Amino acid sequence: MIVIMKPGATKEQVKVIIARVKKEGLDVHLSEGKEQTIIGLIGDTRKMVDVAFDSYDGVENTVRITHTYKLTSRDFHPDNTVVDVDGLKIGDGSLTMMAGPCSIESLEQMLECARIAKEGGASVLRGGAFKPRTSPYAFQGLEEEGLKYIRQAADKYDMKVITEVMDEANLELVAKYTDILQIGARNMQNYKLLQAVGKTGMPVALKRGIAGTIDEWLNAAEYIAAQGNFKVIFVERGIRTYETATRNTLDLSAVPLIKKLSHFPIIVDPSHGVGIWDLVPPMAVAGVAAGADGLIVEIHPDPAKAWSDGPQCLNEKTYAKMMKQVHIMEKAMQEVKAID
Amino acid sequence: MIVIMKPGATKEQVKVIIARVKKEGLDVHLSEGKEQTIIGLIGDTRKMVDVAFDSYDGVENTVRITHTYKLTSRDFHPDNTVVDVDGLKIGDGSLTMMAGPCSIESLEQMLECARIAKEGGASVLRGGAFKPRTSPYAFQGLEEEGLKYIRQAADKYDMKVITEVMDEANLELVAKYTDILQIGARNMQNYKLLQAVGKTGMPVALKRGIAGTIDEWLNAAEYIAAQGNFKVIFVERGIRTYETATRNTLDLSAVPLIKKLSHFPIIVDPSHGVGIWDLVPPMAVAGVAAGADGLIVEIHPDPAKAWSDGPQCLNEKTYAKMMKQVHIMEKAMQEVKAID
Amino acid sequence: MIVIMKPGATKEQVKVIIARVKKEGLDVHLSEGKEQTIIGLIGDTRKMVDVAFDSYDGVENTVRITHTYKLTSRDFHPDNTVVDVDGLKIGDGSLTMMAGPCSIESLEQMLECARIAKEGGASVLRGGAFKPRTSPYAFQGLEEEGLKYIRQAADKYDMKVITEVMDEANLELVAKYTDILQIGARNMQNYKLLQAVGKTGMPVALKRGIAGTIDEWLNAAEYIAAQGNFKVIFVERGIRTYETATRNTLDLSAVPLIKKLSHFPIIVDPSHGVGIWDLVPPMAVAGVAAGADGLIVEIHPDPAKAWSDGPQCLNEKTYAKMMKQVHIMEKAMQEVKAID
Amino acid sequence: MIVIMKPGATKEQVKVIIARVKKEGLDVHLSEGKEQTIIGLIGDTRKMVDVAFDSYDGVENTVRITHTYKLTSRDFHPDNTVVDVDGLKIGDGSLTMMAGPCSIESLEQMLECARIAKEGGASVLRGGAFKPRTSPYAFQGLEEEGLKYIRQAADKYDMKVITEVMDEANLELVAKYTDILQIGARNMQNYKLLQAVGKTGMPVALKRGIAGTIDEWLNAAEYIAAQGNFKVIFVERGIRTYETATRNTLDLSAVPLIKKLSHFPIIVDPSHGVGIWDLVPPMAVAGVAAGADGLIVEIHPDPAKAWSDGPQCLNEKTYAKMMKQVHIMEKAMQEVKAID
């Protein structure tokens, strides 16, 4: 961290800053230039995150060099972290496929979804039992009943389960039925919930907030990692921009950027990313090509009858076709990654 | 709600839609035009929120006419709702002033803040005991100790307390010390928390999410109102845009727009809105002029030493000066509102 | 400008940077800290705008301290610039009111608009003769015929004219009829046009681009000022954000921010800012309260029949009512500004 | 187009709307529902683009069904348009590669860039002779001298040239040296320029505006096509969002969406899209996987010495490595596209 003083800053003003830094146990390197004095902080500047240097008299600007997150950073852990979901490896260079409906509606629907998902090559079944909905009058999920259905369907087809936990109160319940705890976009900065899922030690799929920056997302992961839980999986699911032609703007550049800054795996959710079913396959293929460790997509035996998010759901036929393309891409990426 | 069929849609496709609508107990009005068939839904279309008409064969588009919220709507309640905070009226045409630090740091700091706030004309003391922070290593608040300080300081100066509740687990604790429960921007769509504060029957200050649309914000209020709690106060605090010269973009057009669509009062938070202390006074004055029912601003006896958000804090002198301007504006607005 | 080297940067890498800086005739101040070496640039760093220091080996980051604009900056010209439009002063502490239709449609329409505008207190008549339209099939303006109408109408009511110039080819023509040249939002970064209007020496109303940052806007003004033309008037007209409830998001914080960074006056366009006529009056009032030097609004004798932008137009009655409110606010702001 | 009346609209209000529609030579289909009257417009509703139906008394809402663009639409021209650049086909299913520096700096630099580009498999050489720059003090390009260099370098390596034309005044000059006219992001809605390049009949690469919607972009293409020029190539180059970790947010979903809505080819510019050189290769690969007809990337023999945009430039080695990956992807996409 560097504090840059204004051209006319007095020696007294510089002294005040130095005293403030030393109070936290850090040291300084002082550089008195012809035009400006610059104060470099030496030591663990994470302690100084809250100090409002900009409010001190004579200060022009402060520049942060190091990140506020640490355990999540690739500097801290240079190798890729492979998340082990009871034998299933995410982030080991293979492609993990997750599929299922937006909402869990019935056991029959889940069994049918599991069959379709599995046939296409998915190893994880998705589905929501607690649905965060904009309107209080919209369907809010089958709750525990739904959890039972998804577990049963997954077990029949030897799949893992991923499902969202929306609050601490239901964490224990959800944890009983799922293999991966999903943190939804609206909860990316629900820090108490992040700490709570961190404490479970279970794999956590952390969706990017609808207006979450890369830096905030990495810090959200840090809340989980700080509890000793290194089973974090980032999920890029599109961000909110001015564009309304798609539901969100899927930010695929987040894939290589997260891989550069962090060691945790990242998967892509093209269904929420675009919100229009016939754009899902090309964006799934592009997501794999961007380097994602996996995909999570919405499927439904009959999208028109889905209780939620029907417009972005694939049906059996369109999903099967997409998966053929995804598998071609998966193979091509082995070659791409081998180039050096 | 209107379902617009594609130009070439078949009679069979139209029948499927009609059957789906009637299944929910609604009726239809069919309009078979030369170019397109249009199906108007008759009845309470809120039931149909989840139906993916766009996924049905032959459907071009659906148009929603009525809002998904009801109790929050001005159609439902044409007069302004006045929120009574134990005798203090918010939304009755007067201007309610709230001030205090970002974080509660000590009893002395709170007493000093309360004195400054009160002298400037504030009737509500703000301050955070639980601080949602981007980094897990940043100061997270004094918790119950802090709640005691703000209560004690407010009582000494005969003020009300507003403070944030971040999760259900601490709701009872926070409720014991505060007069107004604040829902932070990150929790605007934390529906379980909205329902929980709704059940308390206490006044709730609902901050707009950092990327919250007006429609989502009104629906968030509906979650509270649906619990029978009509003591909602909207707080405009800036939205996230591409502009980085200010911390957020304060959307003052939200003030007249919320007043047009809803009966609940709305106040403005210029401190978070701009994030730069010397822009706070003009935006506070502009907020009053836009028709806000109140303001909430950050003050600190010594902003440079504030534990958080120092750069956007006013000190005693700048706050006092701003309040003189605010009071001039308050009077001018009485004249403005009298024009008809 | 400061170049921050990576912790492990070699002496050789530092030398390369220093050589690059000296090549441009600047000097350096070297600060070799325990953890990092920092190189401060001494001299006119505007010459170094294009140097990609970040691409040099061993460089962590570069920090720009000074702005890239100069003549536009308040540092360069501490007093407010008052733009003189043939006797009418903009930016002298008074409020300049501009009103008129979106499109010039006929002489009768312009005469009627001028009468209404003038009666409400406007001194400048607006109206477009060349209309930039999203669709090539939309009405594109009456061109020179329209310019004649607006000039004639303004002259009859002793008003000034403001109208948009869309390209260099028509600059001479537009300049013949108007008093203020308006640069539309789509042209904020049409640098050739900025230079051309700069050369005319005429007053220029520079609209903020639909996604223009404050910094880009100030640099756009610099293109005009660099031609020796100091008659720049900034026009805040709303920016594009994710919110669709209003046409744009009117960023009133731009008013105090531009006044802090620049000496040129700034006016507010609430009509384009919100795009909904009944939100225009409160935002006009708020714009004045934010410290604007003037307002520009759209009016039409019969908005429903307007050839463009009807939904955001005020009619005679609503405009007259708004102007009463604006005049109350204008007076109140004299008191507000007197506080010190 | 459909006009939806308010529940309480009078018969008189409905009559006014019908009269307005018939005045333009269109017909109506009237649907008088139990709750609301709906008026469907029959005929070419592009004539009605400017009518402010929302301003008429009794109108609730209007819904546009057809697009405002026509020639650009895939409805109008179901097959892909293949743009022929003097023998080079863009949009025929093959991948067209364009590479070169941001700014043309010297003949030597262009010859070196052409050699590198060609060796990697590029058939089009890029480079700017006129540079639109935020600051007037930044390097603005070598102008005609630069055009000569790029032409000479391209000819030596048997490549085509793409370069930006910034204004009508220089169109003739630029057209003399280039094969493809590039319209920059800042000029996407510079309609006079669009019409002018339309009239040349030359291939036009139309970059998406920095905050351009898909709909505005398609309409911008329509300005060119309306001049009889069907040689339009869309260029996705990232949009401006709240995220600052990348220079822009590359919206790859624009690729399948543009292909769905239009028949013109689309290429991707990952260099401007992300602005960080080591993220360019994965996004180039992802762009191909999203279905792009080509790529345009920035290269430089020595990025650290580039006169502009150095941080996003690839050098010979990184470009060559990327191209190997791109060629693997190109082949994989032949297989992906064959799936049906």
Give a verbal description of the structure:
The first copy, chain A, has 340 residues and is α/β, with parallel strands linked by helices. Chain A folds into two domains: 2-63, Phospho-2-dehydro-3-deoxyheptonate aldolase, domain 1 (Alpha-Beta Plaits, 2-Layer Sandwich); 83-338, Alpha-Beta Barrel (TIM Barrel). Chain A has helices at 11-23, 107-120, 144-156, 171-177, 191-200, 214-225, 254-261, 270-274, 280-289, 316-338; strands at residues 2-5, 27-32, 37-42, 59-63, 83-85, 88-90, 96-100, 124-126, 160-164, 180-183, 204-207, 232-236, 266-268, 294-298. An eight-stranded parallel barrel of chain A has the order 7-8-9-10-11-12-13-14, surrounded by seven helices. Chain A has a four-stranded antiparallel beta sheet with strand order 2-3-1-4, with helices on one face. The model of chain A has no long low-confidence stretch (mean pLDDT 93).
Q: Quaternary status of these chains?
A: homotetramer
Strands of the widest sheet of chain A, in order across it, are 7-8-9-10-11-12-13-14
Task: Assign the CATH superfamily of the largest domain in chain A.
Answer: Aldolase class I
Quick one: how many beta strands of chain A?
Answer: 14
Structural domains of chain A: how many: 2
Radius of gyration of chain A: 23 Å
Question: Helix content range of the residues of chain A, please?
Answer: 25-40%
- Give the end-to-end Cα distance of chain A, rounded to a whole number of Å: 35 Å
Largest interface: C-D, 52 and 51 residues
Biggest beta sheet summary of chain A: 8 strands, parallel, barrel
SSE string of chain A: EHEEEEEEHEHEHEHEHEHEHHEH
Query: What would the principal axes of the Cα set say about the shape of chain A?
Result: elongated
Kindly report the average pLDDT value of chain A.
Answer: 93
Give the low-pLDDT segments of chain A: none
CATH class of the largest domain in chain A, anyone? Alpha Beta
Query: How much strand content do the residues of chain A show?
Result: 15-25%
Query: What is the level-2 CATH architecture name of the largest domain in chain A?
Result: Alpha-Beta Barrel
Helix count of chain A equals 10
CATH topology of the largest domain in chain A: TIM Barrel
Assign the structural class of chain A, choosing from mainly alpha, mainly beta, alpha/beta, alpha+beta, or little secondary structure.
alpha/beta
